[in-house]
Amino acid sequence: MSDKKQHPSFAKSVGFAMRGLLAAAKGERNFRIQLCAFAAVVALGFLLRLTALEWVAVLVCSAMVLGAELFNTAIETVVDLVSPDFNKLAGKAKDVSAAAVWVIALFAAVVGIVVFGSAAMRMWA
Questions:
Q1: How far is CA 86 from CA 64, 74, 83, in A?
Q2: In whole angstroms, what separates CA 32 from the centre of its chain?
Q3: Residue in 43, 46, 25 with CA at minimum distance from that of residue 34
Q4: Positions marked active-site
Q5: In angstroms, rounded to a whole number, what is the distance separating the alpha carbons of residues 58 and 116?
Q6: pTM value?
Q7: Measured in whole angstroms, how far is the alpha carbon of residue 124 from the centre of its chain?
């Protein structure tokens, strides 16, 4: 069998990714909260007229937080699939993946404080 027949087309792969994104947006409260926070950050960025480098920092941090939440959701889903009953190691895996999101979000918040703080000071100086 050729390699082409074993793998979905690029368009189908994008479709699968969009289906996953929609599933997370519909089914994951924390992901919806983070999407709302992202929208607020973008609006504030336009209001404060962020520089190109500030936009890069904000967008990279936002992508990291959203991506981490998607990975966390995937990990929790697989853990629930393979270990539907309580298991100490399964719980640890879920806790650690949630902690990864928290660490990334914490550092993104610090970057946000620096970027938006300096942009606000520049605007009102």
A1: 30, 18, 7
A2: 10
A3: 25
A4: 69
A5: 9
A6: 0.91
A7: 31
